[in-house]
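anyone seen this seq b4? input:
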Amino acid sequence: MEALFTQSFDSFEAAYAAAGEVFECRQGAKRPAGPNFNNAKVLCAKGRLYRSQSKDDAQPRKQRKQESQRIGCRFAVSIKRCAPLWPKDPLPKGIGPGRWFITPYGGRDSHLHNHEELPRTAFTRNRYAWVKARKDQIITMCDRGMRTRDIIGMLRIEAAEQPDAVVDPDTIYNIVKTHKHARRAEEQAKRSWDKGPLEELGEGWMDEADRLMSENDRSEAATESNVFNQQDSNNQ
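predicted toks r here
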């Protein structure tokens, strides 16, 4: 890792890729915030600690089985752009203006990891990334009537030729389920719009309307008859 501190890079992306070449990293805060930043903090993907929020007094069968990849690794470096604000500011040794370079962040051992090197596929986000990059392909196979397990089999054949590819079945099932739910809701909305509000009542909606109107007419006629009969009795 120390060798990276003597190198410079053309862009932030190149420096970020070099910082996470051996160990998986994640980007932290940028300063200033926005696209024109000149300083960014890079942390280890296994940094911080997971704090469970489950209740201790809950029944074991009702508690969610959660896992975390955070082990409190304190690795942190800064990726900076060499752009001095004043002419008197000394430039880093061997690095020209506009170039990006990596420096330790914090203490002396902040650039050291507390764990061994792990393959990129050991991280959940990398496993999801390969499948999600083929989301359109999965949806196309789903629309053709392929079953989810057949889609998983096709992707496993494709992944066999790529050493860093991992087929995550849960992600595929979620993509298929979400797509089917959205398609079903769209078809239902279109069907309701084509029918119109009256057709949704069914074929017998007119007969039902006639029946209600007839009952209303009979009720009004009976009321009027009672009024007339009362007036006749009063006149007599």
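The longest helix spans residues 205-235. The two ends are 116 Å apart (CA to CA). kinda curious what u guys think
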